[in-house]
Predict the 3D structure of the following.
Amino acid sequence: MGLIATVGLVLHPERDCKGVMTSITGWARSRNAQVLGLPGEIARIDGDVTAVEPESLAERADLIVSLGGDGTMLRAMRLTCRRGTPVLGVNLGRLGFLAEIDVPELDAALSAIDAHRFTVETRSGLRATADGMDAIAFNDVALERVPGRGIPVVELCVEGNPFVRYAADAVVVATPTGSTAYNFSAGGPIVSPSAEGLLVTPVAPHSAFNRALFLSSQEKLSLRILPSSGAVAVEADGRLIGHMNPGDVLDLATLPAAASVVRLGETTFYQRAQRRLRLLGSVEAD
């Protein structure tokens, strides 16, 4: 990444970001860099900020700064999908997996970016398509039970061939990035974000086969809603994107290197996982 002439900001919808934004806008001003913000968010940003539509933010910015938690970071990654614009995550509040730094580290991080002392880590995305539905996620896509409509019964097909059926409260298809989110809470494994593939995990399964699967990013995956299933809600990164009924098919595909995340070498994925999941310490068997 060369000279940063334009910085884009993506804000948490509720948390107070003023102190952090003052540092960022001051840094940009001292370098004659333009600051961009989204309509509806620029009123919360002090200083000279230009409003741009979401589809233009990543196209015009040399660096995107996400201020919030993992949800804000995921939104910034979706905005930059396939454009290659690097995203720096600044964590506000609880520790997340995706944000690179906490607020006290911001000034040092900006200086490191100035001096090109950083790396860019790519993250794969996940595209979900069905009739009337097309969405991108960086954590997961989940088929969820609709209250009062029966248990989802889903047939998983690989390369067009039926492989296994799940009857469960939900079926989660996660990227390696999302392995520490819904997948983990459902009992699925942690997967290194440098891996490429899709992780399928049933939530509260009612079927005999209740294990998670990890598929290659090159394999075509689809989920078919079986006739015995109730209607299902489809969520992408926790956002409701539609509903499906028996007979409908959801196609899922990996998007390699769909987003770029700034890494300053302060912590590794495993160190962040240790802190967030409280894995520090050891358990000794008697």
